[in-house]
Structure formats: C-alpha cells, structure tokens
Amino acid sequence: MNKSRSSLVFVAVTFVLSGLVLSGCSANATSTSGSMESTSTASPSPSPSKAAEVPADLTGEWKQSNANSPDSYQAATIAADSIEVNWVTDNGNTTSLFWAGSYAAPTSPGAFTWESQNDTSKTDGAMLASSDPTKTFSYDDGVVSYKVSLMGTTTTVELTGQ
Length: 162
Known about the structure:
Blueprint: H1 3-24, E1 29-30, E2 36-37, E3 60-64, E4 73-78, E5 82-89, E6 94-102, E7 112-117, H2 120-123, E8 134-140, E9 143-150, E10 153-161
Antiparallel strand pairs: 1-2, 3-4, 3-10, 4-5, 5-6, 7-8, 8-9, 9-10
C-alpha cells in the first residue's frame, strides 16, 4: 500500500474508533446475554435549584384587562414612588386623570396591598379624578386591582402590565 493511502486508512480508522469511544461514554453496552445494561456509574446530577423568589417589580405601564370596551379603559403608570391612573377613551386619543398618588413597592414576594395617598396637587384640578384621600391597590399574580366609584356605581378595575 502506498504511503498516502495508508495515511487515509489510518485517519479513517482513527475517526471511526474515536466516534465509537465517544459514543460509548453515553451509550448502553450489550452484555453477553443480549440484554441492555447501563454502563454509567455516575450519580445523577442534582436538580436545578428553584430561583430565589424576589418581590414583584410593578414599575412600568399597565392597562385595564377587564374593560367593557376596547376603546375605553383605564391605564396606569407606576414609577419608583408614584402611581398615576388615567381614563382612556377614543382609542387612546383622549386621556383624563383619575388618580395620582403614592406607591410603595413590595418588600417580599407574592401578593400585597398598598394604601396610596392622593397627590391633590395633581387631582384637585382634574374633573374626572377621584377626590378620595387614599385608595387601596392590590397586586396578585400579575394583576393590579382597585375599586372605582363613579355616579353611584362601584367596580373593580384589573390592570395587567404592558
């Protein structure tokens, strides 16, 4: 056999043997009785630990998920220490302030409630704004909710993050 042909045969045999050796590390071996046995003696890898739960971050934009009309709803902006809620109509072309107040971020994971203090410097001049001194907001499983009363009717508004 010439030298280049024997080199090719050597490379091919090495390649095939390498593949068998590498695949043998994770494959099952056949015993002499013909049944399959696992050749792995390594202990099972530990299951990934559950990520540590952290308090929810509510900062950002929120939109009413239980509105009666797609072009008339409430929307909120939550910042580090404040919340503003607007009435939104005309497919988003008209907004009117409903609530401006304080926001206290949660300090532990899970559901929580905060009492928002009305920022009357913003709400006193807004015709459709609530005049309540405080409003209770709740957060649970991705939903911020609160009560809204208008002309003798009270409803619970539910907001989801955008």
